[in-house]
């Protein structure tokens, strides 16, 4: 089986969130199962790593293209270099035009390098256009929705010439969406099968509340048997409290106390239990609910927040950091994220919707109990006898769940039992990878695994 993944980021070379983690971990496990795996993503100016240039040429409708290659963990990574990506950072306001150029370059690059996969697997809207071109070229395709809210929309009259698609593709049954080009819809329409990153989210997005205007199409895909949910895994080598170099390593519940002491010393916190948050600062993540609940939360908890995003939420948390029980660090900080997961006692995720979520899995692996809203992948991963779940969407609902967690914390026997159950859960990529390979096999008719992997 030869598979090509296409996405906008891949850890550790480029990353802004969970998509980059998935495109690092899933292909690596597939490679161990005997699949010939290639990952294609943009060659950003800020790329971490130095690819070896393997091709340079002109692509019709795109212009000059160069391609770099790195190999790691049995996976071949190809980075497509375009003028549109020669600037700092990953994402910008003109991303629809930029990723249309990337999307048009993907197939010609693969053909120039004699890479003809049995299946092309696109991830999120940035991969919608290359998936459409692959389907129109007769390739078998799968498409994964990581977050339906972000769709890659632009006025169709302006964007039409960016795509290289035939005229018939621009109708309501194609990539048109209320007068816009919609690259997420391109992936949905042209994929042989669509997955999303948890079974609950796959059901939720067929409703008007979560369907982001595409629920009618997603209902149709469900009825046709072309939409399913496969829960994401967790890179358990990268996130392992026994070997994590950013913390005081520990096994079981005993070692957490030293990491809590480190976090208290770092931020000058008192001896109240610590509620951690590592999140993008956005309303989707319920960070406004967290901020409004802080007057109640600080009565029971020290609250440590790491994240960047919305300027208004950032300003509000900066103001709250004057409170001795609140610590806030803006932006991304990998080392601090590890220290929060290890040092906090509980972990808040009040998301309005959560396609899958990795933070709650990491928290449980580190013995930090999640307080989560009942939505998406949080439902599928946080058992009632480990974490604390709430159904509402108000600051009071979050505060009540955190109060429940605080009462449980005082019963050290119950708390320890919850911690041990959480740390024993298996969130490895092995099971999700095999589910994807079974899907690939069904779509292509080709054995997905090597004979050695089947034994």
UniProtKB/TrEMBL annotation:
Source superkingdom: Bacteria
Swiss-Prot/TrEMBL keywords: Glycogen biosynthesis, Glycosyltransferase, Transferase
Catalytically driven reaction(s): [(1->4)-alpha-D-glucosyl](n) + ADP-alpha-D-glucose = [(1->4)-alpha-D-glucosyl](n+1) + ADP + H(+)
Enzyme class: transferase
MF annotations from Gene Ontology: alpha-1,4-glucan glucosyltransferase (ADP-glucose donor) activity; alpha-1,4-glucan glucosyltransferase (UDP-glucose donor) activity
Gene3D superfamilies linked: Glycogen Phosphorylase B
Pathway where it operates: Glycan biosynthesis; glycogen biosynthesis
Starch synthase catalytic domain sequence ranges: 4-218
The protein's Enzyme Commission number: 2.4.1.21
Keyword Transferase applies: yes
Binding site for ADP-alpha-D-glucose: 15
GO biological process, one term: glycogen biosynthetic process
Family label: Belongs to the glycosyltransferase 1 family. Bacterial/plant glycogen synthase subfamily.
Its job: Synthesizes alpha-1,4-glucan chains using ADP-glucose.
NCBIfam families in UniProt: glgA
Protein name: Glycogen synthase
């Amino acid at each position: 089986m030869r598979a090509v993944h296409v996405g906008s980021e891949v850890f550790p070379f480029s990353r802004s969130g969970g998509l980059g983690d998935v495109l690092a971990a899933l292909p690596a496990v597939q490679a161990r199962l005997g699949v010939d795996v290639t990952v294609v993503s943009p060659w950003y100016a800020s790329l971490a790593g130095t690819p070896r240039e393997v091709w340079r040429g002109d692509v019709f409708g795109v212009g000059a293209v160069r391609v770099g290659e790195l190999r790691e963990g049995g996976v071949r990574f190809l980075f497509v270099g375009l003028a549109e990506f020669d600037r700092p950072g990953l994402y910008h306001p003109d991303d629809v035009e930029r990723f249309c150029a990337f999307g048009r370059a993907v197939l010609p690059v693969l053909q120039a390098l004699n890479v003809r996969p049995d299946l092309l697997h696109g991830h999120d809207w940035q991969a919608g256009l290359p998936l459409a071109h692959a389907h129109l070229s007769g390739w078998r395709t799968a498409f994964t929705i990581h977050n339906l809210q972000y769709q890659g929309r632009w006025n169709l009259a302006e964007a039409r010439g960016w795509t290289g698609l035939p005229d018939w593709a621009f109708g309501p049954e194609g990539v048109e969406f209320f007068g816009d080009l919609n690259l997420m819809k391109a992936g949905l329409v042209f994929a042989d099968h669509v997955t999303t990153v948890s079974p609950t989210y796959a059901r939720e997005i067929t409703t008007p509340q979560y369907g982001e205007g595409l629920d009618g199409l997603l209902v149709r895909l469900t009825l046709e048997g072309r939409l399913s949910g496969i829960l994401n895994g967790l890179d358990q080598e990268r996130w392992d409290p026994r070997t994590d170099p950013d913390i005081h390593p520990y096994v079981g519940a005993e070692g957490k106390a030293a990491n809590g002491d480190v976090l208290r010393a770092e931020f000058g916190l008192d001896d109240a239990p610590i509620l951690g948050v590592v999140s993008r600062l956005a309303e989707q993540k319920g960070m406004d609910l967290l901020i409004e609940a802080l007057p109640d939360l600080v009565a029971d908890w020290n609250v440590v927040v790491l994240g960047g995003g919305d300027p208004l939420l950032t300003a509000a948390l900066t103001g709250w950091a004057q409170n001795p029980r609140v610590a806030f660090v803006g932006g991304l900080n990998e080392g601090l994220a590890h220290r929060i997961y290890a040092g906090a006692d509980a972990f808040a995720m009040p998301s309005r919707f959560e396609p899958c979520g990795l933070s709650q899995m990491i928290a449980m692996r580190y013995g930090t109990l999640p307080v989560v809203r009942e939505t998406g992948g949080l439902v599928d991963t946080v058992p009632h006898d480990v974490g604390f779940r709430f159904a509402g969407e108000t600051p009071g609902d979050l505060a009540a769940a955190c109060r429940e967690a605080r009462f449980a914390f005082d019963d050290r026997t119950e708390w320890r039992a919850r911690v041990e159950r959480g740390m024993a859960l298996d969130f490895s990529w092995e099971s999700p990878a095999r589910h994807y390979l079974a899907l690939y096999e069904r779509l292509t008719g080709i054995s997905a695994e090597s004979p050695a992997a089947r034994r």
